[in-house]
Design goal:
Layout: H1 2-16, E1 25-31, E2 34-40, H2 48-53, E3 62-67, H3 71-79, E4 85-91, E5 95-97, H4 102-105, E6 116-118, H5 119-122, E7 129-141, E8 146-151, E9 162-166, E10 169-172, E11 177-178, H6 186-189, H7 196-213, H8 220-226, E12 228-232, H9 236-256, E13 265-270, H10 281-294, E14 297-300, E15 302-307, E16 311-316, E17 323-327, E18 330-333, E19 337-338, H11 341-349, E20 358-360, E21 372-374, E22 379-381, H12 390-397, E23 404-406, H13 407-420, H14 422-431, H15 436-444, E24 453-455, H16 456-462, H17 477-492, H18 494-499, E25 525-530, E26 533-538, E27 542-546, H19 547-559, H20 564-580
Helix pairs in contact: 3-17, 7-8, 13-14, 13-15, 15-16
Length: 587
């Protein structure tokens, strides 16, 4: 009773006199058979409303909104470790899809669920506060820092829930859509291959074509039309799908539909002179020869100009531009990517309306904005040109303001310049020069002179051609994943690098950039060509083609799965296909 009485009096005293709130009362109680320790502390009453409304509230987390759960967005979320952000992920799909295996899904080599991982499972972390909302982004307002969204639930309902989300930082990783180049009829009649749902529709359509062709009521001509499969686009996706379709038809479907075996035709249309233009010529030649041997009708230099429900009209880019048409049963369109409508509207707001994708600087920050970043297929890095900054580079290196630049002065700045302008290094390699100093000596025409001095005009002349080596990064999963990892690392070290910048010297300004600019490292690329053969182009100009490369493809794509669950499912699907063939059921 005495202890309780003391507690009651102490509590009343602290409540009556808030100034005592920081006092800690400790009482040691002993006697009888034991002892105890009683500690009491009462703090100043906590005002919730004041804490929420006050912009200077302690430990208030910055709101970080991420749009998209593709390669770029998921890579960013997986590598984000800084707990000082309140992260909101918004995407119309609640899973990550391993898109390089979509062509395999179209024919049942791999099942859809095997390449999908729930996004909530992937972003479940103990230290980072991440929430996910299944919705589509309708608009981005960089002035008010709001993102307007609409729920994708109740797809058949006319009234869908709309809401706005505030942000301090915005990461746009929404990917892109298939580019139809405004070709009439493509949107209405063609299949695309960007999402898992696209692959499922193609798989259904293939089986539908064979079932229709098997009906006794059709003419021979109509059967030929229905069983004519056309693929538009000779890039990696189009080539791989054509190869997968050829294997599906010849390994599985002809056994189930023997009467229509001789009627099946696969045509691949490509507007340029060769397929797989981004690969080494040895791979291109091998792929074209293999497709000819396999009976795939390869038509290069052929551009699609119109599509109807039963015919495709093409224009020959040579031979006078002759227009011809062909009947078809199913069309898959894989000719590149274009910006989504919401991205196009946003680009107009920030004066980027003439671009094909969101332009960012080398740190993935959207040009013309503050704290908005874009990565993956929806964005492109606008590399700064050397000749735009040539005067500032000269001034920064010429520390004694003599009007001339010596080798010694340039050597002090060379690392920062090469890091800021990667095209210089590419140009040096093309000229077989070791450093920018060698370029200066070469410009003077006397490489043996160690005391080379260049004035501003001579310096401009020496670097006048370096910008010719500037190249846009390819829109691939490899690029998007590396960008996501890079940006997450920047956010993880944001506070640290604000105090101690780690980037190159600011050419226009003082100090250093907070971070090093993004640099893409190419680890090679594959092109499955069917018949258990593939081609690979790896760093160091190493090219591999054949059956062994296909097994290398299997091992790499299995290891790149985002979880042990999907890895086991994909390997299980491959094993099932080897043992029992592909599933041709129409479900």
């Amino acid at each position: 009773m005495r202890i309780y009485s003391f507690y009651e009096k102490a509590s009343r005293a602290f409540n009556d006199h808030p100034s005592l709130s920081k006092v800690l009362a400790v009482v040691v109680v002993s006697g009888g058979t034991g002892g105890g320790l009683l500690a009491y502390s009462d703090s100043k009453p906590y005002n919730v409303e004041q804490a929420v409304s006050s912009p200077n509230a302690e430990n208030k987390k910055k709101k970080l909104v991420v749009l998209g759960t593709g390669w770029a967005g998921t890579s960013f979320l997986k590598n984000l470790k800084n707990p000082s952000y309140e992260v909101h992920v918004i995407s119309p799909r609640n899973y990550f899809a391993f898109t390089p295996l979509l062509p395999s899904v179209t024919v049942g080599t791999v099942e859809p669920r095997s390449i999908c991982e729930p996004i909530r499972k992937m972003v479940k972390k103990k230290d980072v506060d991440i929430s996910f909302w299944e919705a589509e982004c309708l608009s981005i307002d960089p002035v008010t820092k709001k993102v307007k969204c609409r729920s994708t639930q109740d797809a058949d309902s006319k009234e869908k829930a709309e809401f706005a989300v505030d942000y301090d930082y915005l990461v746009i990783a929404m990917g892109a859509r298939s580019n139809t180049f405004n070709t009439p009829g493509v949107e209405e009649h063609a299949h695309f291959l960007k999402e898992v749902e696209d692959a499922q529709k193609i798989r259904q359509s293939i089986i539908d074509c064979f079932e229709k062709a098997a009906l006794p009521t059709l003419s021979e001509e109509e059967r030929k039309r229905i069983l004519h499969f056309v693929v538009v686009g000779g890039g990696p996706t189009g080539v791989e799908f054509a190869a997968e379709l050829h294997d599906f038809v010849n390994d599985d479907l002809v056994r189930l539909y023997p009467k229509v075996k001789e009627l099946v035709k696969i045509t691949l249309l490509e507007a340029t002179d060769h397929i797989l233009n981004m690969f080494d010529k040895r791979i291109t030649d091998f792929a074209e020869e293999k497709f000819h041997r396999d009976g795939i009708n390869l038509q290069t230099g052929s551009m699609v100009v119109k599509v109807t429900d039963k015919e495709i009209s093409t224009k020959a880019l040579k031979n006078g531009g002759q227009i011809s048409s062909m009947p078809y049963g199913m069309l898959v369109w894989s000719t590149g990517i274009g910006a989504r409508p919401v991205i196009m509207d946003f680009m107009k707001q920030i004066n980027q309306g003439k671009r094909r994708a969101l332009g960012t600087d080398e740190w993935l920050r959207v040009e013309g904005t503050g704290e908005i970043y874009a990565l993956g297929d929806c964005a492109t890095i606008v590399q700064r040109k050397v000749m735009e900054d040539i005067g500032e580079i000269f001034k920064k290196a010429d520390k004694d303001n003599s009007g001339t630049l010596t080798v010694k002065e340039m050597q002090e700045l060379v690392d920062d310049v090469l890091e800021r302008y990667p095209q210089i290094e590419l140009y040096l390699k093309s000229r077989k020069l070791k450093s920018i100093v060698d370029l200066m000596k070469d410009a003077k025409g006397d490489a043996s002179k160690e005391s080379v001095e260049l004035n501003i005009e001579e310096f401009k002349s020496a670097l006048s051609e370096v910008d010719t080596q500037m190249k846009n990064l390819p829109a691939t999963a490899q690029v998007a994943a590396q960008q996501g990892t890079y940006l997450a690392d920047c956010f993880n070290r944001m506070e640290e690098c604000e105090k101690n910048p780690q980037g190159p010297i600011r050419i226009r300004g003082e100090g250093r950039h907070r971070f090093k600019p993004f640099r893409y490292r190419h680890f090679g690329q594959f092109a499955p060509l069917g018949g258990e053969q593939a081609a690979a182009q790896l760093p160091g100009d190493w090219v591999s083609i054949g059956h062994s490369t296909q097994w290398l493809w299997y091992s790499v794509y299995a290891s790149k799965q985002v979880s042990w669950r999907t890895r086991a499912l994909v390997v299980g699907d491959w094993t099932r296909r080897f043992m029992f063939g592909r599933d041709s059921s129409r479900i």
